[in-house]
Amino acid sequence: MRAVRRIIATLATVLLMAGGLAAQTFGTTVSSVLVIDSEELFAQSEFGQRVSSEIEADQARHLAENRKIEAELTAEEKRLTEQRPEMDPGDFRAEADAFDDRVQEIRRIQDEKARKIVQRRDRARVAFLRAATPVLGEIMQNSGANVIFERNSVFLLDESIDITDRAIDRINEAIGEGADLLQEVDEDSENVGGSDEQVPPLQNTD
């Protein structure tokens, strides 16, 4: 029954599209139904490309920091292992436990930093779609459409009702790289996540 309902819904969508395609007026499709690829909309917009570039830079810095920390922890572990024969067993156990605790804390902090990078990207996308909604509404109104579907949810379509490229151009005109929008995203991230924690200092190996 579910499969039948999905087929009926798909056919209804196709029929709605076919009935809504009326004409080409001044290069604008007149249709009661439009579709858009929201992933492409974000990725190819000036704002989306700026966000992607900054996220990639953040991830690269995070990876470099992780590698540096890993090297320092490896050196400290080696030092502790080499000193073990000369240490009192109780003292060694205390230092080993402290080292393990420090490793766990560093891992928690670094995982939190990675999570914040992902959250920044997600918040930026939400903010972008919120800012894009009025533009999409205007395109829908000018096209005489009643609804905009996500392209990925449509089984069959006429490419003329895909407004993704047109929407990208209009959104670029409206918000560009979205410096103010990105600032709002960063402020929201700070309010939710607080300030970044610092990795606890490693023991001096000198």
Structure in words:
One of its GO terms (biological process) is protein stabilization. With 206 residues, this protein is mainly alpha-helical. It has one domain. It has six helices and four strands. Helix 2 crosses helix 3 (46-83). Mean pLDDT is 83; it is low at 3-26.
Helix content: over 70%
Based on Cα principal axes, name the global outline: rod-shaped
Strand order of the largest sheet: 1-2
Helix-strand pattern: HEEEHHHEHH
The fraction of residues assigned to DSSP E strands is 5-15%
Instruction: Give the total of domains.
Output: 1
* Beta strand count: 4
The class by helix and strand makeup works out as mainly alpha
- Count every helix, treating DSSP H or I runs of 4 or more residues as helices: 6
Model regions low in confidence, pLDDT < 50 over at least 5 residues? 3-26
Major beta sheet, specifics?
A: 2 strands, antiparallel
Question: C-alpha Rg, in Å?
Answer: 27 Å
- pLDDT averaged over residues: 83
Note the gap between the termini.
Answer: 72 Å
